[in-house]
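Purpose: get a first structural picture of the assembly so the mutagenesis plan has something to point at.
Setup: two entries, given in the order below. No constraints added.
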Amino acid sequence: MTSWVLALFAFAAFFAGYRFYSKYLAEQVFRLDPDFTTPAHRFNDGIDFVPTNRFVLWGHHFTSVAGAAPIVGPAIAMIWGWGPALAWVLVGTVFIAGIHDFGTLWASARNRGVSMGAIARNVISPRAFNLFLLIIFFLMLMVNAVFAVIIGTLFTNFPASVIPYWMQIPIALTIGWLIYRRGVGVLWPALIGLLLLLALVGVGAAVPVSLPASIGGLPDVAWWTAIMLAYGALASRLPVWLLLQPRDFMNAHLLFIGLILIYLGVFVGRPEIVAPIYNTALPPDTPPLLPLLFVTIACGAISGFHGLVSSGTTSKQINRETDARFIGYLGSTGEGLLAVAAILACAAGFATFDAWSVHYESWAHASSSGIAAFVSGAGSFMGHLGLPVTLGTTFVSMMVVCFAATSLDTSMRLQRFVLAELGRQYRVPVLANINFTTALVFVLCVTLAFFADPERPGQGGMILWPLFGTTNQLTAALSLLILTLIFWYTKRPYLLTLIPFLFVATVTTWAMFINVGNYLAQGNLLLTGIGGLLLALNIWLILEGVAAIRRPRQADDVLESG
Amino acid sequence: MSSNPAEQVRRFAAHIARFYESAYSAPYRRHQRRAQRRQEDLFRLLVMSEALGVPNPASFYTLELLPFLLEDFHAWHLRMGLEHSPVDGFRCC
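Result (structure tokens, whole complex):
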């Protein structure tokens, strides 16, 4: 089987999903009203609530939700073969992520632009809001630890990415300074910065930078992990206009350039798939496909983080309610495309089955080097376009590092806000101190990254991936539960979200039991504690939701009629 | 509508530049405007401190700035959680 057929099939599935299913959702389920006064118009304050062009808003939404996670998950899940991974990404994106992202955006726009946590307070109970905050706190904690380890792994495996990545920072700082301090227009600094960054890919490939294999008894990956967490903490304290904004803008370009080059490479080179459709010779340490596949691939199929973005910022800027279909559904489809690109790169980016098997010789190895498989595979696709493979792999590794680093400092920033909110809820005033919370977040992340796998301090963060995926899916399940309750109260076809909710909640809880059991068997008390706590929160919140069905609520209580 | 190709190209370039500006600023607009408003609110508080009963050694200079800040005064005291004007003799609502 050649890869381009699969790519074409995925395009067709996503197109059909958007053309038919999202149209049905828009007209029959959400009943979008072009005359509904969206929060952006109703509360237009020029700050949070601003009506925004739907293409701009889609770009903002998509680049906020797409990052390293939809690449890492499929790259690890390839161990079971490309068939299950592709099937889950396609079905998950079209039937679950689409309605989840679209629905959370719609529900928030119909609830004065408030977040899903605040809607949970209204639809389920005030306690649900606090539980939601706690789950988000743990989600962010794992994002930080995992992404720092991913970057450390990439820097070690692809030392050519070190110079382009670190040089992106002064380039971004210069762009931010030019635009906000010198009043220069956006177009030229951004384009010149992007060209400089692409030129640095060549410099990085010519001058790879590595740390010594071991410093003070700690391996290089551990040092890179610590450096990245320290960097994330410092970057999260800088004004957003100085670093995060220009870097995000360059990353958005990298994302689109990367996606186009990968798919062009697939269609031009038509590489053969060497990975098995279903891996019957699984390494002995591989966990069962059911349910672990569904939490290993979280972003790319269904991700709770999308609901947080949809209801956090996007819903406050939506110009017309009918734009929700384009922004919400196509946002999830864009991430699905990224996940499919990752599957193709890991399935067809290798010359032989033996070369593929090296990356997937064990679950532990797949977890730590799945991302390297993606980088090598996607780099080889770019080789079909006439680009030297070294440059291709450097470009892709830099792209993934840039995504992960941006997610890292954004997540550290968000975690600070979550801590401040928890401090307000539980009356702990010290959590309102920014310096204290930054230091606390740093210490917690280092603790998790270094002690998650006590046998491999600083490099075993990938042991957290299933737990991260489970927490992310749990957040998605909660959003689906809230949507189901809204449909129930407003007499809409609630089975469309109830079935995905039951599926996601079941596999999440099941996977969480397996994870906690594994951590317990390994004697890993830290992860047993975190996993057990999340499992308890999960069950508690689902029970709160089930109890909410019996509380009488009118349609107007959960949805604004316009 | 001009049919001059050069004019059309110029318009198209301006459209792209506007789209870029918008795509660049939209994701972080709220952070920046909120920070800007916080600074302006603090500045307004300093300028109006004498009227609010807080001695201000620079009031001779800040008095001159007062008229420029009155336009947003009503929105400001609402933002500060004060239902009515806190300044005696100046009733905006």
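The beta strands of chain A are 214-215, 218-219.
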